[in-house]
Amino acid sequence: MGDHVKRPENAAISALRWEEPPDGPMLVVLDQTRLPLEEVELVCTDVQALVAAIGSLAVRGAPLLGLAGAYGVALAAARGYDVEEAAELLARARPTAVNLAYGVQRALTAYRRAEPEEAALAALAEARTLHAQDASASEAMAAHGVRLLSELVPGGGYRVLTHCNTGALVSGGQGTAFGVVSSLHRAGELRRLWVDETRPLLQGSRLTAYEAARAGMPYTLLADNAAGSLFTAGEVDAVLVGADRIAADGATANKVGTYPLAVVARYHHVPFIVVAPTTTVDLATPDGASIEVEQRASSEVTDLAPSPLGTQAYNPAFDVTPPELITAIVTENGVVSPVTAQALAAVCR
Ligand code: MRU
């Protein structure tokens, strides 16, 4: 793992940045495992430190994993490490979010195509380009998402339920689903953000609530298993979530607990909307069953709540929502609704 340093107070959220001090380039990432109690950054001067940061979820969330992968290749190149080996290590650090392998591949391709003396700079330039593209994708998704909501749920003043964390902590910009929520809030159209705590690693209570509180949003936290009763009470106008990998047929892998929300939303006729950049769409994966779902340590569950010594836990990091339960997929290139393989392929032009 890299070294920890204290972050300046009240600084804008910056999940990751490239720095070039005299002793060599480095990638500085906000350690998301320590939020919201501590705002500390991790300094990664080698790929092993970055891979450890990805594995521990200090750096997490699909778009940010893509940026970390690309900058990781640039770091290996700038520091004179074996870039091919570094790229492999990075791409395998987590299996489900396709953005990670995508970001690695983008920087690696730029590195391979450049003249040797320019290859490191080419990899860094590509990482920066991906970073800027992610920021503008997030703006475009927010605009499409707000428009879609106004069509699906007339009247404004939305009560939105979200799961996991999809804001500036996972993006070069305002994020995916949370980017839409932020736009609603700025327009005075967010009546309430319902934040699932998101067991077992609590990305909702630790990270989304942190971002919502910083932005002054009207938000309420709930235990994941309280969501059903919110629908029964008619308190949810729409569900907005992100994605880690969207298969060619529209099946969507996202944080475990997303699929049950989609089932309940359908039962209650509430729109269930996935917001994700096209970098999260993997047309090479035909369907949901073909998506590799990361299985994480049993201790992440057993450490959270008392259980008899030796208890083993089932701990998939993600689940897969079939396309027929998804009202719409919002990308930077437009909205896919109804969700069909043809319509999805068309926005991935
Ligand atoms: O395990 P994590 O915290 O990396 O999982 C993140 C999610 O599931 C997010 O919902 C997803 O990456 C979309 S982020 C825009």
UniProtKB/TrEMBL annotation:
Reactions catalysed, as given in the entry: 5-(methylsulfanyl)-alpha-D-ribose 1-phosphate = 5-(methylsulfanyl)-D-ribulose 1-phosphate
Q: Which family does it belong to?
A: Belongs to the EIF-2B alpha/beta/delta subunits family. MtnA subfamily.
Give the Enzyme Commission number: 5.3.1.23
Species of provenance: Actinacidiphila guanduensis
The molecule here is called Methylthioribose-1-phosphate isomerase
Name the pathway. Amino-acid biosynthesis; L-methionine biosynthesis via salvage pathway; L-methionine from S-methyl-5-thio-alpha-D-ribose 1-phosphate: step 1/6
Q: Which domain of life is it from?
A: Bacteria
Q: What does this protein do?
A: Catalyzes the interconversion of methylthioribose-1-phosphate (MTR-1-P) into methylthioribulose-1-phosphate (MTRu-1-P).
Q: What class of enzyme is it?
A: isomerase
Return one Gene Ontology term, BP aspect.
L-methionine salvage from methylthioadenosine
Q: Which Pfam families match?
A: IF-2B
- Carries keyword Amino-acid biosynthesis? yes
Keywords associated with the record: Amino-acid biosynthesis, Isomerase, Methionine biosynthesis
Lineage, top ranks? Bacteria, Bacillati, Actinomycetota, Actinomycetes, Kitasatosporales
Q: Where does substrate bind?
A: R60, G61, A62, R94, Q203, N254, K255
The record, for SUPFAM superfamilies, names:
NagB/RpiA/CoA transferase-like
Q: Where is the active site?
A: D244
**GO molecular function, a single term:** S-methyl-5-thioribose-1-phosphate isomerase activity
The UniProt site entry described as Transition state stabilizer is assigned to C164
Q: Which PANTHER family match?
A: METHYLTHIORIBOSE-1-PHOSPHATE ISOMERASE
